[in-house]
From TrEMBL:
The chain crosses the membrane at residues 164-183. Residues 115-142 form a coiled coil. SMART domains: EMP24_GP25L. This is Transmembrane emp24 domain-containing protein 11. Keywords: Coiled coil, Endoplasmic reticulum, Membrane, Signal, Transmembrane, Transmembrane helix. Its main location: endoplasmic reticulum.
Amino acid sequence: FHIGEREEKCIIEDVPSDTLVIGKYKVQRWDVHTHGFLESAPGLGMFVTVSNPHAEVLMSKLYGSQGTFSFTSEISGEHIICLQSNSTRFIAFAGSKLRIHLDIRVGEHFFDESAVQAKDKVNEINLRLEHLIEQIHHISKEQNYEREREEKFRKTSEETNSNILWWAIVQTLILISIGVWQIKSLRDFFISKKLV
């Protein structure tokens, strides 16, 4: 994505509790002379701020023009990841465009390939099994989180349906009472005018 030099861009990531999130980014600055983005942006860094669903800051750190950040979610929900350049130019002069390449991996535990290339096949199989077990735990967490969300949605739907039913009953009672009142008023009117 593209942002201005002093602009902040936030991304919402829905993450289950106790899950590792790893983000990797690279910043490129627009070059007026070549009319393209430079391969790197020396001297330019990024402030990375991560907030949990309760708006508590989990992480706020300054990184270079490319880097990797990670955090572990404590509670499930929408986490907000914000990126902003550390440009020191005044806003009036900071008109340069930046291109940000961002890769966010949720629940990934990177597999150490150097350890896999060990000559001992038992260790290799053991490492692969541990990696598979971690993936199974992650999938289990994701499923539990989806169940929680589905249960909240179901409760909200049931409450809404219940409210709609009671509202319909109240409306019917109001209409019936207004109808009875109108009939009584019309009858009293006719009696007072001696038409009946």
